[in-house]
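Chain A, query sequence.
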Amino acid sequence: MKRLALMAMTLLVALTMSAQTAKTCNKKRDMKNEQNCEMECCKKTRSAAFQYEKDIEWQDAGPGIQRQIMGYDGQLMVVKVKFEKGAIGTPHTHYHTQATYVASGKFEVTINGETKILGAGDGYYVAPDVLHGAVCLEPGVLIDTFSPMRADFLGKK
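Chain A, predicted structure.
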């Protein structure tokens, strides 16, 4: 009897989990294959738990600018951006919230028409859809954070 009750409870838990998966899955799929659905369309996009600079490729992000995608998931992304002197982060907008830490170098940063000179240890915040850009005055590195993550940096739209 106990074995039958345990089997019934296990089935109930499995059915509940299956129903939850079906509710959260956004892709059309064969309802008979919940496990496949969970594996294919209900996965979260995320980085490995640990990132090592030596293992991450630098991506070209414009003349004199390279970036490394560090930790991320759907809600947050950290990006290291290396600038050569004179490189220009062209003024642009995006719907992401951005907060940036100046790890090294010196930058002329313009946000919504206001320009400031920032150096190592400084930072700045950019609200969604606000025009911003930077000019590198001394070679340096910026640590950008974005929320939500920049799927365009991963080749996803």
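The helical segments are 2-24, 34-40. The chain has two domains: 2-40, 53-154.
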